[in-house]
Design brief:
By secondary structure, the protein is mostly helical. It contains eight helices and no strands. α1 (about 1-40) packs antiparallel against α8 (about 140-170) and α3 (about 70-80) crosses α4. The mean pLDDT is about 80.
């Protein structure tokens, strides 16, 4: 009887050891999948995606400046200088040079007038940059997420089930 009990204990011990090994193997696999997901999420964008993002950012900036009617304020400022109260003739180009400074370029609506030129220059500027080898486009990034997420979820459920089995064995 004692020998039978010892045999049962050995079988139980072997089962616990096998479960631990399997859980560890699954955790390593899960960590590998998390690493792949992190690599996909943190990879730099492709050149074409970077160009699209920069174009959108510049467009948003320019549109917001137009909508803020700051260009109107600048034009009123220019008109003020043109309408010299002393009756002197003032060239508009002289006034523009004296009125426009970095504030007007940055914070007024003038930047909105430069949108086509800015957008034309973005691809040229990006093409001149060195680009990381691990850059991926948005479609590939999403495909990797879509591929890895269900695998990660399924493996996490498997590990939880194995850990529950191990816990139940420990209670014996």
């Amino acid at each position: 009887m004692i020998e039978s009990l010892l045999d049962s204990f050995k079988v139980l011990k072997k089962g616990v050891s096998q479960l631990r090994t399997e859980i560890e193997k699954k955790r390593l696999e899960l960590n590998g999948l998390y690493g792949e997901l992190h690599a996909a999420n943190s990879a730099p964008p492709s050149r074409s995606d970077a160009i699209a993002m920069l174009n959108e950012a510049v467009k948003d900036l320019c549109i917001s400046k137009l909508e803020g009617s700051q260009l109107k304020g600048l034009w009123e400022n220019v008109q003020y200088f043109v309408a010299d109260p002393m009756g002197n003739t003032i060239r508009v180009s002289d006034n523009l040079r004296s009125c426009i400074n970095s504030f007007h370029i940055r914070d007024s609506g003038i930047i909105s007038l430069l949108l086509p030129a800015l957008q034309a220059g973005i691809p040229v500027a990006v093409a001149a940059l060195s680009w990381p080898d691990n850059a991926i486009d948005a479609k590939t990034r999403q495909q990797r997420r879509d591929e890895l997420t269900p695998k990660i979820d399924a493996l996490a459920v498997e590990i939880a089930a194995l850990e529950e089995k191990l816990s139940n064995l420990r209670e014996l």
